[in-house]
Amino acid sequence: MTEIAHRYVESTSGLRMHVAEAGEGPLVLLLHGFPECWYSWRHQLTALAEAGFHAVAPDQRGYARTGGPEAVDQYTLLHLVGDAVGLIDALGGTPAAVVGHDWGAPVAWTTAQLRPDLVRGVACLSVPHRPRGSKPPVATLRKLRGDGFYMVYFQQPDVPEAEFERDPAATFRRMLYAASGDAPSNVPIVPDGGGFLDVCPEPEEYPDWLTAEDIAAFVREYEGTGFGGPVNWYRNLDRNWELTAAWHRAPITPPALYIAGDRDMVTEGPGAREMIENLSDFVPDLRETIWLPGCGHWTQQERPAEVNEALIGFLRSL
């Protein structure tokens, strides 16, 4: 079986990043989401390597073995895209395919938007491209969903990470189950006086795609860095809006693929299905949109075989 190797790479952004990698061939950069790390791509690293690609999954800025600065303003979308571009450069500088899931999807979409010269193709899971809106997003989210909506709740200093770090195993177990296709549908709105995990039930048993060993792996990867850096990504939503004004509604031109579960909370949100139906308006070379029936938010972990097949087919077409 193909082995996954680990090393540190100095991104030309200036950040020393931990990467997991496998295989040789055209570079495929795999960008994880929240609250994840390289381990989220464990099934794809080996499958892509065996299909003839050099698959690289970094721990992104603030996460796991990479870690990052303490200042909140060092976690903007431009920093994150800079890290991705810097890895492509450090790993040979030839154009790469960029794949993103959850928060990794906006990083992948924006990398393709800002540096199409370095992106052969972009594939995103769960989160569609959202064109820049006309107003800062936090106030809009507060108006639509209230102060308890998780992205608004995450704006508080120190509170979310303190909650998540009290019992990391419970945090991962409950978050991963709650947003999966195996759990009852729910909207992540924190109750008054409560915490985020109050809307994440304990699973009575692990779903088929998740094990106690997987939870232990996530806990190990987060030791020493915790959740502060990851939550800081959310604390830059309005700053991202300010910094990306120059690319307001700019198209994403590289070939693209979008994959989502039909039980993903992201695709069930207000206006999400309409946005996905019209994705090609801003992603003109969208090759395909793939829906995975019964799949929740953790696309590549819940349905590795289907995701691997789709990714390999797309990558071979580039």
Structure description:
The chain is an alpha/beta fold and 318 residues long. The protein is built from 13 helices and eight strands. It has an eight-stranded mixed β-sheet with strand order 1-2-4-3-5-6-7-8, sandwiched between helices. The mean pLDDT is 97.
Short description:
The chain is of the alpha/beta class and 318 residues long. It is built from 13 helices and 8 strands.
Strand order of the largest sheet: 1-2-4-3-5-6-7-8
H/E element string? EEEHEHEHEHHHHHHHEHEHH
Task: Please compute the radius of gyration using only Cα atoms.
Answer: 18 Å
Question: Given the structure, what is the number of helices?
Answer: 13
Number of strands: 8
Observed structural traits:
318 residues; alpha/beta; 8-stranded mixed beta sheet; 13 helices; globular
Describe the SSE topology.
Elements: E1 5-10, E2 16-22, E3 27-31, H1 42-50, E4 54-58, H2 77-90, E5 96-101, H3 104-114, E6 119-125, H4 137-145, H5 150-153, H6 159-165, H7 168-178, H8 212-222, H9 228-234, H10 237-243, E7 256-261, H11 272-277, E8 286-292, H12 299-302, H13 304-317
Parallel strand pairs: 3-4, 3-5, 5-6, 6-7, 7-8
Antiparallel strand pairs: 1-2, 2-4
Helix pairs in contact: 1-13, 2-3, 7-8
